[in-house]
Write a structure and sequence with these properties.
alpha+beta
Amino acid sequence: MRRVHVLSFGILCSSLLLMGFGCKKQTPLLQQLKQQAAQQAEEERHKPQDPLPSLTDLVNQIHQESRQHPIQAQNPELQNVEDALKNLYAAKSYRAHNVTKTSQGDITTSIEFNRTDQSLHETIQAPNGMISEALYVNHTVYLRASSSTWENQSLQANSDAAQSIIQAYQSLATDPTPAIINAATKFIDASTDSSGCHLVRLFAYGSEKVQIDACLKNGWLTFITIHASDGDRTTTYQDFNQSILLYAPKN
């Protein structure tokens, strides 16, 4: 049960990072996962497990603040980043790879996302080498750790793991633009390298001030790096609108 808690929270956290939101920064990420698992296990011993909070309120709040404080005199480079984020949001499918730096080592997350089929495959490798996977397909959640077989979490009543994976999909299916480009966003500079990467650097403000580096190519977001106080997070994107078919496991 503890492993499932850690896995599910880690997948939700990684998905939030991929779309520009952040997890709590008071402690290193791995310690957060352990504390979350311990807290949830303690709650289960005393009362039924409450469903994890939805991202809806957070996203609605961001959209509301963006409407109340529209961007004045939009910088052309920020507009380019906004357009690329809108393209990401409109993409029917893509693959992404995230590397999050922590004091314990790198956490790597690979994602296959299909908006049309409402499916998601996410693989997380912890600094200790442990690999965990989540699959959301046909409105059903499957999990497995290392070489273990897939477990159908949707068959378990009030499964917090299932709720976490569904919220992870919802976070990736949500427009990330207001979380990054809003009235508080500040442009730093921009340059283009020999590979054609147009790198735009900016300051974004959420729970903390962070520098964000966004590489744009032909209107698409190639990679984005968030320089947060608890470690850098770099996400690369590829295979936009390509055929990414995900199926329920047979075992």
